[in-house]
Amino acid sequence: MGEENKTFNIEDFDVAKALGKGKFGFVVALKVLFKNELQEYRGEGQLRREIEIQSHLRHPNILRLYQFFHDKKRVYLVLEYAAQGELYRHLQKVGRFSDRKASIYIYQMTTALLYLHQKHVIHRDIKPENLLLGAKGELKISDFGWSVHTPNANTRRTTLCGTLDYLPPEMVEGKNHDASVDLWCLGVLTYEFLVGQPPFEDTESKATHKRIVGVDLTFPEYISSEAKNLIKQLLQRNPEDRLPLNEVLLHPWITKYNK
Length: 259
Ligand code: ADE
Known about the structure:
The chain has ten helices and eight strands. By secondary structure, it is an alpha+beta fold. Belongs to the protein kinase superfamily. Ser/Thr protein kinase family. Aurora subfamily.
């Protein structure tokens, strides 16, 4: 941004074009949240936390949050523009990614998670819907709505809404959890990139719940043994048994495609 302590309001943005070149001098994305809808599904506290966390992060694979402002009805987040848009749409279009493509994304994801964990931030909501792609096709983590800063982390039971697909056993069971929840999610993400569906998906949430806590994991025959090996090491029921991020970076399925 370059202009410290400047405040903005909606007039500074060419919103008619949705994504405009305004006072920032470069293209940004505006995320508009309606205050009356905010209370219903996430609450003000969670949005404050999201802004507080995301605005302090600087990593090539984490979407920048430059500024925010609000008026009577809305909260506006001024975000980095990710030119290739939503990753899940790319996945939908092609069905599943090649080993090479998936490995490159997982490498980028892992470096971003290492950075977050060094800052004591756990993301807790890694899934294709929360990932964007930059102009060069680089992955960008974009949603910090469920993230927590660990020293103050409220690691007890939190209300679970939406899909269970990416939740680790300890969160499904409402137990205490730590940064290793992101390792589990990384395993689920790797699987979904390669298969096109998350590993524990089922027709109803009760069945998904059962499959997660039982780590009921099966692989289509086209999955390479190296990919299988990495996924199995991440999808461990015991959080302490999951492969640490620095070792993910050294795994053959990662090093093979990320020279
Ligand atoms: N879609 C949702 N958020 C976006 C962003 N920041 N950039 C581009 N497309 C988006």
